[in-house]
Amino acid sequence: MTHGWCRRRFGLGVAGLAATLALGGCTGGAAEEPVAGDGTGDASVIAPGEPGEEAETLSPEEAGEAADQARAEPNAADRAFMTMMIEHHEQALVMTDLAERHAEDGDVRNMAERVERAQEPEIEAMEAWLDAHEDAPEDTGDGHEGHEEGGGHEGHEDGAAPGMATEEQLDELRAARGAEFDRMFVDLMIAHHEGAITMATEETAQGSETTALEMAAELVATQGVEIDRMEGLL
What we know:
Blueprint: H1 4-10, H2 14-24, E1 45-47, E2 56-58, H3 60-72, H4 76-102, H5 106-132, H6 167-175, H7 178-206, H8 210-231
Antiparallel strand pairs: 1-2
């Protein structure tokens, strides 16, 4: 957990601080002059404070450590991603349970089994993450903290996770049998996976906590492969 002082000073200014550090390291061999200093000639970084607070001068090492800590602090995007992905995965398990009972094609059954084996432990991991990060900020209703309006998960229609099947679609799937069930199941699961990739891609752009970002990247890769396999079943 990042200390309060780091959150206050760097929670909103990590991008700018990182840019300052990057620029400071790209001098192209020219003579370097300290950005600011204490008279020793050592370069330092000006870390902006929040409105009403004075900026602070830090060494590059201190600034780098603070920026790394701020990037690892869970934000509202991380929490929304984990929460909505659990709901998303749970619906996928509803569909795979139907496939176990009603699918006709053996390849469709095998694909549904792979989805179930993958997503059950992912749900457990996401629930454990939420338990471990109970203090992670929640959405304010007008966008994730630190992101532009409309850039968060709440921007999805009706607040639903993208790719989720409607209740009407699930009822149709429950009533289908044989080849009709197989086709409908694959179509819905492709859309489901595409929605998961949409959310995971948003998380990689908006999130900050390392585990959440790694999980999002893994979802993009694995579910993309599954989509290719499912499209081969149509």
